[in-house]
Specification:
single chain; mainly alpha
Length: 356
């Protein structure tokens, strides 16, 4: 009888999860601002608790924190986007010089290959180089184009305005009632399982706090260090490369792969000298050393047991199925599933089915 009940419970759980996934997929556009608000509330809850411990009411603490946060984001956006656009325009302006440098590299190779028309091949290469040179400017202006494209239709314009209002409003209520929401959810669990559930939730929160909050701070710190270091080396697009390399550090060593090669190539084409390239090597070596010895141990603590391939797969699948909302929740979901999987694996190995 108990076996039939357990089987029935498993079937019901699977069906509910499948229905929830279908609901999330078809309502992803509507739920995206709420996911953003929930993610921001989760990230800022510890700071709110700290302000509340200073005898400040939670509502006032939330208002102060939200005002400071959005003011910081707005200021960073107004500072970063013009610099990105300026660096991209500078790269496009110097593109003919870079093409001339690459042609000097390729010219001896073309002479070594027989049966080819060098003039025709150079014409094709010039055309492709020009296309490649326009990519940074297009990448920087893509956000502006997206926002402008969102305003072309009345429905999209209304949806954009609604999202701009929904995110701070939902964030305010979620952040203000964060502890009470958690308490109400915990009260839904039967009392005999409450203590174990609380331990499991605490472990999940530790993983999320260490990985999501910690890695976000680590990534932003490394992005700032990379950008400053590459700028001092005279690297074109130093801000863009630094941001990509720092934020890509969510997957270990991916930032080095995505950042070092373009930084080294662009620096050499700009300076026509190997010394600045050695400076780029030094920047990446120093930042990686600081990340391993100082930044990550102090901010994140011990490494979280999430495989880099699992992180990449989760982010790509989240983006494919749920768009921006999927990217936001991909890593937290994988972190939670990793905790649940480890607990399930322990129970499985301690079960009679495994030991007998």
């Amino acid at each position: 009888m108990n076996r039939n009940k357990n089987t029935q419970t498993i079937y019901i759980t699977v069906i509910v999860l499948l229905l929830a996934m279908v609901f999330l997929y078809f309502s992803r556009r509507v739920l995206t601002p709420f996911f953003l608000a929930l993610a921001l509330a989760y990230l800022l809850d510890p700071v709110t608790d700290r302000l509340e411990s200073l005898k400040i009411s939670r509502t006032v603490a939330v208002l102060i924190l939200m005002f400071g946060f959005f003011l910081l984001v707005l200021g960073a956006g107004l500072l970063i986007f013009p610099m990105l656009k300026l660096q991209a325009e500078h790269l496009v302006y110097n593109l003919p010089n870079y093409i001339a440098v690459i042609q000097k590299w390729i010219q001896p190779l073309l002479g070594m290959v027989g049966g080819l028309e060098p003039e025709k091949i150079q014409g094709i290469l010039n055309k492709e180089f020009l296309k490649a040179g326009e990519l940074p400017l297009k990448a920087v202006s893509s956000v502006t184009s997206f926002l402008w494209g969102s305003m072309t239709g009345l429905f999209n314009f209304i949806l954009l305005l609604a999202n701009l209002v929904i995110i701070p409003v939902a964030m305010f209520y979620l952040l203000r009632d964060y502890d009470s929401i958690n308490e109400k959810l915990l009260n839904l669990v039967p009392e005999r399982h409450r203590e174990r559930t609380l331990e499991l939730m605490k472990e999940m929160d530790d993983v999320l706090a260490g990985f999501v909050r910690g890695q976000l701070v680590v990534g932003l710190s490394m992005a700032g260090l990379y950008s400053i270091g590459l700028f001092s080396c005279g690297t074109p697009m130093s801000l863009f490369i630094g941001l990509v390399a720092g934020l890509a550090n969510l997957v270990p060593y991916l930032g080095v792969v995505l950042g070092f090669l373009p930084a080294a190539v662009l620096t050499f084409m700009q300076a026509q000298d190997w010394m600045p390239v050695l400076g780029v090597v030094g920047v990446f070596a120093v930042v990686q050393a600081l990340e391993g010895v100082v930044i990550t141990p102090r901010i994140v603590g011990e490494k979280i047991g999430l495989h880099p391939v699992a992180i990449m797969l989760a982010v790509l699948l989240g983006a494919e199925f749920f768009g921006l909302a999927g990217v936001i929740i991909a890593v937290p979901v994988v972190a939670i599933l990793n905790v649940l999987f480890n607990h399930g694996l322990k129970q499985y190995k301690s079960s009679s089915f495994y030991t007998s």
